[in-house]
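User: Can you predict the 3D structure for this chain?
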Amino acid sequence: MTAKQREDAFYALCKAKGWKCTIQRRAVFNFIAENMKHPSVEEVCAAVRKTVPNISTDSVYRILNDFAAAGVLLRLEGCGKSHFDPNTAEHDHFYCLRCGHVYDLSGEGRSVPKDRYAAFGEVQFCEVRVTGTCRNCLENPKIKAKRIQSL
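Assistant: Here is the predicted structure, written as structure tokens:
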């Protein structure tokens, strides 16, 4: 998405939702649109404060929740933090229990089809969630030593 397309999408979203086009909202929108690494609220705050130094954590949290409610991003809960994903298509995630990072799991086809749960009602979204220790943490000697001691 070009900068112009992103700006147009931002203004269209604000207009559709009746939101003011604030500098804070635009900064969060731009960061999320450019970041596919499932940032936490804290990571979004740190990045956005480089351009909008006075933005509060509460404002960032509210803006992210508004975007999630509008379907612009997914709010992912896990490992003690909320993470936000601009990829709103159905896909699965790996949650690292050590570092707290969230990774997209890629693959051909869904491992759990939506229609499997049709008896419960209309399924809006289906995600497989895998938890464990990511490759980066496994390869980090400090993490390995800590892991061995905790067994």
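The domain at 1-85 is CATH 1.10.10.10 (Arc Repressor Mutant, subunit A). The first helix runs from residue 3 to 17.
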